[in-house]
From TrEMBL:
Matches recorded under Gene3D superfamilies: 1.20.5.3310
Stretches for region Disordered: 87-113
NCBIfam families referenced in this protein's UniProt entry, alphabetically: tatB
Principal cellular location given in the protein's record: membrane
Its membrane topology: Single-pass membrane protein
Subcellular location: Cell membrane; Membrane
The family this protein is said to belong to: Belongs to the TatB family.
Entry GO terms, CC: TAT protein transport complex
Lineage, broadest ranks: Bacteria, Pseudomonadati, Pseudomonadota, Betaproteobacteria, Burkholderiales
Protein name listed in UniProt: Sec-independent protein translocase protein TatB
GO molecular function: protein transmembrane transporter activity
GO aspect biological process, one term: protein transport by the Tat complex
Signal peptide: none
Amino acid sequence: MLDLGIEKLALIGVVALIVIGPEKLPRVARTVGTLLGKAQRYVNDVKAEVNRSMELDELRKMKTTVEDAARDVEHSIHTGASEFEKQFSGSGETLSALAEPEPPPPPVYRHPRKNWRLKQGATPQWYKARNGVRTKALSGAARVARFRPHTINKID
């Protein structure tokens, strides 16, 4: 890369001071600094994207290895089950005789047949008023009128 020591940087600064001039040098330095910052951010974004793609490739490889292992396990289970069935079919016993009896089906849901209107109507009005339960529907205009702040006109 570039070997920029203190001497080379000082020489670049002196040349820039002579060529650009002392009035425009701070503005040019700010512009160069912002451009370098943008370039660094762009390079960092590219590096991050490359790292993400590399991690994605690694994850894909890991996924394929896990899927292969799962297929191998599934195949071994199927072969073991088929061998087990062959052993019992050869001895005359059936698998249904060895299996446990099925459990009874779950009970069917029955509605309790309660009258919810009666239950709501049994709540006292004072309790509803205290807890803010609405008992009457208000129209939009009535709601606006109810919550409109009242102004007091003072006559001086």
